[in-house]
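Translate sequence into structure tokens.
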Amino acid sequence: MVETVISFLYISVICLTIGSGLRKALSRYISFPAANITRLIVTGIIALTVAVGWLSIFVRIGAAVHMAVIVLAVMSAYYSRRELAEIFKSVRLKLPEAAAIGCVVLIIAYAASRGAFHTDTGIYHAAAIRQYEEYGIIRGAANLQPHYAYNSSYLGFASLFTLGFVLPNALHTTTGFLMMLFLIDALVYLSRFKTHVNHYADAVKAAMIMYMMMNYTGCISPATDYAVNLMTGYFISEWAGLSGEGTDDDVYGILSVYGLFLTTMKLSAAMCVTVVILPLVNYIRKKAFKKIAGFTGLGLACFAFYPIRNVILSGWLFYPFESLDLFDVEWKLPREYSLLDSSQIKVWGRCLFDVDKLDWPVNRWFPVWWEAQEHYDQMLIYAVLIGFASIILTAVIRRRIRPYVLVMFMMIAANLAVWFFTAPFVRYGLIFLLTVPMLAAAGLMDLKGSFGIGRIVIIALIGICYCSRIDHYIMDDLVFVKHNLAEPYYITQKPFDDPETGHVELGDSGITVSYPLTDDEINSYYDPPSTCYLWMLERCEPIGYTVRDGFKAR
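Result follows.
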């Protein structure tokens, strides 16, 4: 725990200073919203993730890159020292508030230092992080294991703070760090509930707290699902809280770049980019073509590394979307692998578990999927349906809907539509599922006197739908805390799983690849390059005589 708390503080300082310096540098050209600590840290997170994404194409993310980041953080701190001083002066915590924040840090650090890893962390998250550290990127890495082609930029961010070059065990504290950051931010924001003109942002903050409660036991894992849901929740809350009548168009532009960045974390958030509609229309109306060009350039800087890495890893622009077949490179993952992978994701998400059922129409697979859902998940989906109906009702009663609110709801609806028709695992779209009912309740509360009894009934129904889910996860969290009290991780963090591995030499290249000797499908972080699947090694070969030269299909 001690090691985890120190890591939280270290990541906070690095991201805060770099975020502050970047904000000051860009503020000459862009109007930013009022600065606060969370916004600066998130800016730093995005900046570092993008930087790692670009750098990894050329160099490995090791000690040299980390030292450069420290130097950049020091320079940024000096460059924006006055702005940082003003922010810290404005933070006046009373003893109870400071104590509450300290408790949050310790509560999150407890879970982030022990417990069970997410299944996908064993399969590929940890091994992909190690690839960033050791090689930056491996051409055709997907030929070792298709999961490497998923290419979440979050794993690059995580690789920057493992500190394996100085510590005996690599850290994996970034998910816990995000959870700590956004939980404190949400609690501070909600403490000012009565001062807010509308409560859409409050609703999203509340949904984020519920999301964190439901995934508390997994924050030891650098899991892409957790990270993208947390960052997406904050993105929606910022859109809801910052945008509105009288807001500078640049705010919409900055948030649109944020929405595009989320795509690099995981394609399940890809439709967040639809919010670009609003700033684009506003700038076209004003003929602000320089602004359009500027934000387009910023967006490309924050996104272009992602498709480039995709092509290097797998030969596909976006994996597993074989319809976009644009490149014919030596290391390209065979088309049949992509077809099988995308088919499996869809049928597993629909709880069919058989790729022969891929073409089943919605009316055939939906009953199977519905019956497979837990009761509390079914109740959540009921709440979402009530929520969307309430949102439409609220708009009818008000007889208008502000453009920024409309775009926000369209973006959420688009993400849920893609989620439902592609791979409706609840965990993939959980932040959107939690957010819709809360936004609906906030909209009803803000009607101020209209539709009195109806409002109470609908809000009560939404609350009832949440009850079973909240009860289930609160009990899970309490049991987790109790069962892990005896775990010996009060000083250091629990290390990545370390499976027993075998090795295969590929051809006469001298390159060996490790694989697990058990049937647990736990990929080795400690023995790169690695794969979960021995059979994949039988179907690929090295391109050259170094790992970074890459691998191709036989």
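Note: The first helix runs from residue 2 to 26.
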